[in-house]
Design goal:
9 helices, elongated, about 0% strand
Amino acid sequence: MKSLGVLWLIVFISLMGFGVTAVPFPLVAEQMGASNFWKTFGGAGVFSLFQLVATPLWGRWSDALGRKPILLLSSAGSVLAYLWLAYADTLTSLIVARAFGGIMPRILSAAFAYATDVTDVKNRARGLGIVASAFGVGFAVGPPLGGFLGTGAGGVPSLHWPALASAGLSVLALLGTAFLLKESLAP
């Protein structure tokens, strides 16, 4: 059960990081001249579309290589994607950074697979519920924090501090995965 607690923290941190950038994104995109479509679809929509395409591939690699390497790669990729987002200075760069974040292996699918690996059939629903609760709590905590961090000097919306905070959270998830989580998939 210790591994599920560590996994909960990793998923919580990861989803909180995603939520932190959700609130300021459309405001920053608008400042960069985005149309209404790109203001609404450019952030979560682009991320989700690329995630939809990439997740089956990462799931297959998770089955072949193990859960921990994919969780590590996910966290490292998220750090890079958030750093890119923090310093994006054009609308195109902003949207491509979100696409890159979506392409990187998502922590949630590997986390559910990990929870399935470490629980027996009797406790599987409980284990999956623990991971799902981290998703919900992390995504509930992130947007208010993003609203606070995304208000720049003079009330001008900014993604700089929310994205840097998300990158920092992803570093924490990376360290937690590296040092506190064992591989769950048998060789």
